[in-house]
């Protein structure tokens, strides 16, 4: 009798699971109505949600609410583990909300997309249970720095075309990640090696790659494979529609898209070189100026010298207590050496380039912002830092060795839309009686055709008027990717030399933990350009020599 009762109880449990999966499919007839389609009693019970139709800001806010339950200020787990947006439509202006929706969403395991115009960097970050991400539609642009600190992520798949990608770092700290698969053509690819992904077996490329910024990681496909590929018609259809949509409301893509389109029309087998110009002119309305970053820089207004003298630029003395600590901790006298000032500056540049790896996706270090504390924090946590902190640290090391220096924040024209800026250093050479460019992220410096070292302002003007520039042969990123003049100067820095800013006082602990600077900011901008900080148009004032007592 007892055994029969036990069998009956087991059968009952099997017939009625304690937590049944709840799969919900929703078709929106009108954008903004998602919250009306799902009852309040179901919102905490859904395990799989599939959405068709057009999503707007209100719909993304609703998705954020059901993906991120907050109790007493803490994000809690919920039941939703699969989100299928393969039949959903949303424009590029909504993808910032997509990033907010996904951030730290604890329960999500699987995410599926259809066509997507743009996906912002850091969209998939600190999601503890995320296992797979699948793009079943076409992707217009997907940023770098996309997948970060995802312990269970196994696979990322692109089923159709990818028109454009961001920079080298795509996945970081994803220990379970095994592969990234491209089953459709990629027009312009910037991704490099996976970082801190010990199980990563590599990129699986099952379709043509037309252009690759990292050919040693993902090679450009040969022309025979291009011709054999059968998916060009759909890819081009998406490309043309995407190019028009994305440039209507996004200044950044007005410069980026024409370059991407031209790669496509030239490389595709059914569109030859003769039709490239005609296709470009058809794609874009005549009021759009199709420009490269270098073109944009060349068309910037000139500087205007006004005789400005304030605020005055000042520099910490080597006897400063923090600079003294830095010098003694790292034995900088030995590192800099006893050579002339140029050799000492270069020794410190190469030392800093090797001291910590560059990593643009990690959070700011949780310590005081001086060289010793940043270094100890990174070594303890086995991590790198972004370009800002590498420049801060080199700036401090130069000052500690009695070399006047600035860290220089280099910003694009569209700084309010384009978050990808760069920070380098300018060091004062007594022997040359001028500033010189030193970039610890890329171990880079720049000369003219006669071998004279240049400072950022001089590089900018030579880019504008076409005079020769020579990048050092060993410029590189983390000893993994060689830098070229064409990419580093004529594209990346041409974009980021539109505005340059420095602290009026260059010293130790230049920034506080909350990111505020401990000095007035001076930004050099073209005449008439509106920037977030107080600006000067006087390049002579901006690049003035340090006080005489520091340069004897």
Task: Describe the 3D structure.
Helix content is 33%, strand content 20%. The chain has an eight-stranded parallel β-sheet with strand order 1-2-5-6-9-12-15-17, with no helix packed on it. A six-stranded mixed β-sheet has the order 21-20-19-26-28-29. A four-stranded parallel β-sheet has the order 7-10-13-16. The chain has 552 residues and is an alpha/beta fold. A hairpin with a 3-residue loop joins β24 (476-477) and β25 (481-482). The termini are far apart. Residues 1-20 and 70-76 have low confidence and may be disordered.
Give a brief outline of the structure.
The chain is an alpha/beta fold. The chain is built from 18 helices and 29 strands.
Overall radius of gyration:
27 Å
Q: Please, what is the average pLDDT?
A: 84
Any low-confidence stretches, pLDDT <50, length ≥5?
A: 1-20, 70-76
Largest sheet: 8 strands, parallel
Helix content: 25-40%
Fold blueprint:
Elements lengths: L1 H14 L7 E5 L6 H4 L10 E7 L2 H11 L1 E3 L2 E3 L5 E8 L5 H8 L7 E4 L2 E4 L4 E2 L6 E4 L3 E4 L4 E2 L6 E4 L3 E4 L5 E2 L6 E4 L3 E3 L14 E3 L17 H6 L3 H18 L1 H17 L5 H11 L9 H6 L15 E2 L5 H10 L1 H5 L4 H15 L15 H11 L5 H14 L4 E7 L10 E8 L4 E5 L7 E2 L8 H10 L4 E2 L4 E2 L3 E2 L2 H12 L2 E5 L1 E2 L14 E4 L10 E2 L2 H4 L5 H4 L1
Task: Provide key terms for this protein.
29 strands, alpha/beta, globular, 8-stranded parallel β-sheet, 6-stranded mixed β-sheet, 18 helices, disordered N terminus, 552 residues
């Amino acid at each position: 009798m007892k055994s029969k009762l036990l069998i009956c109880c087991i059968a009952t449990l099997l017939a009625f699971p304690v937590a049944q999966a709840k799969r919900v499919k929703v078709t929106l007839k009108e954008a903004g109505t998602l919250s009306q389609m799902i009852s309040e009693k179901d919102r905490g019970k859904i395990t799989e949600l599939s959405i068709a139709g057009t999503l707007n800001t209100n719909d993304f806010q609703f998705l954020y609410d059901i993906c991120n339950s907050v109790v007493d200020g803490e994000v809690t787990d919920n039941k939703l583990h699969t989100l299928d947006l393969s039949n959903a439509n949303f424009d590029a202006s909504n993808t910032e909300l997509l990033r907010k929706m996904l951030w730290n969403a604890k329960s999500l395991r699987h995410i599926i997309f259809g066509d997507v115009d743009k996906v912002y960097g850091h969209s998939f970050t600190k999601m503890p249970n995320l296992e797979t991400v699948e793009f079943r539609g076409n992707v217009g642009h997907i940023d770098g720095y996309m997948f970060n600190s995802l312990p269970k992520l196994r696979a990322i798949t692109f089923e159709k075309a990818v028109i454009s990608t961001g920079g080298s770092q795509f996945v970081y700290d994803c220990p379970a990640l095994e592969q990234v698969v491209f089953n459709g053509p990629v027009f312009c690819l910037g991704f490099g090696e996976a970082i801190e992904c010990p199980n990563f077996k590599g990129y699986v490329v099952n379709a043509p790659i037309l252009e690759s910024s990292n050919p040693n990681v993902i090679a450009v496909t040969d022309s025979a494979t291009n011709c054999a590929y059968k998916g060009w018609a759909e890819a081009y259809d998406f490309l043309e529609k995407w190019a028009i949509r994305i440039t209507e409301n996004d200044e950044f893509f007005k410069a980026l898209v024409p370059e991407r389109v031209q790669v496509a029309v030239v490389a595709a087998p059914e569109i030859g070189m003769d039709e490239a110009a005609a296709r470009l002119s058809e794609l874009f309305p005549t009021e759009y100026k199709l420009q490269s970053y270098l073109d944009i820089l060349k068309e910037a207004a000139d500087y205007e010298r006004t005789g400005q003298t304030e605020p005055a630029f000042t520099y910490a003395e080597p006897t400063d207590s923090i600079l003294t600590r830095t010098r003694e901790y790292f034995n900088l006298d030995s590192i800099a050496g006893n050579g002339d000032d140029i050799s000492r500056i270069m020794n410190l540049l190469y030392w800093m380039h090797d001291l910590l790896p560059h990593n643009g996706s990690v959070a700011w270090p949780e310590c005081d912002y001086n060289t010793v504390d940043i270094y100890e924090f990174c070594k303890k946590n086995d991590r790198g830092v972004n370009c800002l902190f590498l420049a801060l640290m080199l700036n401090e090391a130069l000052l500690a060795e009695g070399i006047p220096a600035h860290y220089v924040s280099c910003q694009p024209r569209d700084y309010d839309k384009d978050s990808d800026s760069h920070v380098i250093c300018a060091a004062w050479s007594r022997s040359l009686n001028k500033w010189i460019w030193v970039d610890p992220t890329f171990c880079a410096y720049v000369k003219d055709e006669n071998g004279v070292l240049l400072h950022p302002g001089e590089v900018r003007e030579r880019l504008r008027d076409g005079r020769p520039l020579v990048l050092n042969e060993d410029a590189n990123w983390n000893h993994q990717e060689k830098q070229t003049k064409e990419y580093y100067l004529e594209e990346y820095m041409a974009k980021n030399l539109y505005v340059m800013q420095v602290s009026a006082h260059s010293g130790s602990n230049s920034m506080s933990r909350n990111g505020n600077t401990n000095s007035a900011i001076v930004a050099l901008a073209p005449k008439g350009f509106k920037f977030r900080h107080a600006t000067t148009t006087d390049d002579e004032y901006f690049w003035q020599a340090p006080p005489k007592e520091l340069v004897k």
